[in-house]
Each structure stands twice: as C-alpha cells, then as structure tokens.
Amino acid sequence: MQHDFDLIIVGAGLAGNCLALALKNSGLKIALVEANSREQLRHSPAGDRALALAAGTVELLNDLGAWRGAADKATAIKHIHVSDRGHFGKTRLDAADQGVEALGYVIVARDIEQHMADLVEKTDTVCLYQTRVAGLMSGRDAVNVSLKQHDGSSLNVSAQLLVGADGGNSTVRKLLEIPQQITEYGQTALVTTVQSALPHRNIAFERFTEFGPLALLPVAGKQSAVVWTRTHEQAETLINVSDREFLAELQNCFGYRLGELKLAAPRRAFPLSLIRAESMVSGRTVIIGNAVHQLHPVAGQGFNLGIRDVALLAEMLIDQHERDGDLGDARLLKNYSRQRQQDHGKTIGFTNSVVKLFSNDNLPLAAVRNAGLTMLDHLPFAKKLLTRHAMGLADRLPKIGERK
C-alpha cells in the first residue's frame, strides 16, 4: 500500500528533531509537523531554561552529528557537589576519578534547539511548520492524519507510523485519549541565572533543603543556572519580591561557596509534578519524550530520558525498515514500549525517591540520609555506580549513528 509518508513526527522540539536526525540516512520518507513557526519557537520563554546533558546523551548527540555545532555553547560539568543544608552529609563526584573529560554539560535549551532544527532542515525531511494535528485514526495498514495549516487549509496524509513528540501538552496524546498518572509535589521550581563573585570551576551544586532541592549549574564565565525548588506559597512570594530580597534568601539557602551572587536573568516559576502516561502506544501511534513523562528536575534526568526514548525507537525502526517490515507493526511497538518502560520505571523511581527523601526536615530521616551521603563519599565502588547513573551510562546505549 502506498502512503504519503513512511513516518510522521509531530513536534519539532528536541525529541522530534533528534528522531528526524537519527533517521536521516535510513531511506524513510519522513514528515515533521509543528504547530508553531520557527520564529515562535526561537522566542519561546522555555528556550531560556538550562539543560543538564548527561555524558550518555552527549554520546548520542555526537552519533547524530549534532554535538559538534553545539559543543562551543555548552559548559562542562567536571565535578558534582551534593550536600544537605544544615547537616554534615555531602558527596563529591569527579570526572577525573572516572577517567572522563566531563560528567555532563550544561547548555541553554534555545541554543541546541535551534542548532538541531537547522540540521533537520538540511535533510530530506518534509518540515511542516505552523501546522497542527486536528485528528488521527489508525487503520489496518496506515495511520490517517488530518492536518490544519496556518492559512486555514486542511491536509490529509497517511503513514505507516505516527510519533507524538509534541511535549507535555501533547495534542497527539489527547486525541488518543491516553490517561495520565499525576503526582503533585506541592512544589514550584524557580529558574534564573546568577553571576558569582568566585568562579564556579565547572562544579554543579545540588543542595538539598527541607523545602526541596537547590541546583546551581555552571554556565559561561562566572555564571550559574539556578533551579530552586520551594513550596508553591514560598515560590509565589519569591517571584514577586525585589531582586535584593530574592538574592538574600538564595544566598542564605546556598551559602557563599561562590561568593556573592547577582541576578543575571529574569526569574521564572514552573509548578512541579510527576506526570506519566499510562501507555506509550495506541494503534499505529507511539508517544515519546515529555509527551509520555515529565519528571521533577532534581538530578536533571527528564531530557536525558527522552533522548533515550528517541535512540531506541530510531534503532528499532531502522532495523525494521532494513527487513522491509511495517513500521507500525503491533509487535514492534509493544516490544519498544516494554523496553522503554523498564528505563522509565528505574529513572522515575530514582527521581521520585530522591524528592521524598530530601524534601523534608524529619530529624531521624535527616540523620540516615546524611550518614548515607558521607558513606557514599568514601566508597569508591558505590560512588562509581552513582556517577555512571548520573552520566546516563548505567545501561547500554543504542548505536543510532553507526549506519551512516
């Protein structure tokens, strides 16, 4: 049966663009559908956020040929310092101890998003910006998709498989009526950038407090990206106070390891919850990235988990295509979902446990967790396991670039 495309990807964010790049030499006919224009994506406030890229994620981006053009905009994390405010426990991770150049990198989301979008436009992928999905239906041989373009015209297309990579507010997930499991943390993340009096020396700080974690991630010069978790009420107050009052509270919470801090960017607030779709697959459609999972920012695992969604899917689709198989085959998609659910379960479970363990002031629990941090700091084998987890190297990474 002839289709308009072999594959339709909905969402031209990082997950969608990564998948298009991973498949650029596969021989598949691909359409990339995005509701916004390139200009709207370029100026989105979400582009201001700092992304912590695990070393494993950088390996995958390098396989795609996407890292070389972004590396000069990224800052290496060579050390990680974990501490518990008001207590003695701490753990330090060091890239040199693991024989690697960096444990990860920090990059402004807009920088890597625009770079990857530029790369996709140089491929044979058909990019349909300012086009939204109005409806979809899976049949025996194809998924049929109704598109509405910015000029009001309609377009009906078909493909073997549709991939929903359209973010946390996924239209694809809603059209498929896939339920979500939502865990409210009662927390809001305050995000900004600070300039410090002292150099950060490529150290990423993760400081736990009774209200939630505070992370300072190294970026250019003496600047650090701040992700500060507080209760909803505290966050609302802190987003509205003066810069001086905000900095005083931040300094009180973080301390003076980097000297005096000054604001270098506007403050933004994002309510936090754990959101997980109850299914990744429906008919000839699969959802990936933030469309299927949204995590607490502690440990910075959300984006890295989404890239692993992309990597495995690309690997399996290329194998299927080389065997002249159906990309929307139910057994293939079921196998993909089963493998990804294992990674999702481990990563989400780890993140959720860290939030619950460290976002409270229970004294007996504080004593236990601080003893654990101190013990971990003196056990090389345990520290190596934690470091490999933080680097996204605990499991095998799909080789998405080896068929180029």
From TrEMBL:
Give yes or no: UniProt keyword Ribonucleoprotein: no
Q: Which cofactor does it need?
A: FAD
User: What PROSITE patterns does the record point to?
Assistant: UBIH
List GO molecular-function terms, semicolon-separated: oxidoreductase activity
Known pathway = Cofactor biosynthesis; ubiquinone biosynthesis
| Keywords on record | FAD, Flavoprotein, Monooxygenase, Oxidoreductase
Instruction: Name the Pfam families for this protein.
Output: FAD_binding_3
Domain FAD-binding as annotated: residue spans: 6-342
EC number(s): the record gives 1.14.13.-
PANTHER family given in the database record: 2-OCTAPRENYL-6-METHOXYPHENOL HYDROXYLASE (PTHR43876:SF8), UBIQUINONE BIOSYNTHESIS MONOOXYGENASE COQ6, MITOCHONDRIAL (PTHR43876)
Family the entry assigns: Belongs to the UbiH/COQ6 family.
Q: What is this protein called?
A: 2-octaprenyl-6-methoxyphenyl hydroxylase
Lineage at the top is: Bacteria, Pseudomonadati, Pseudomonadota, Gammaproteobacteria, Methylococcales
Q: Which gene encodes it?
A: ubiH
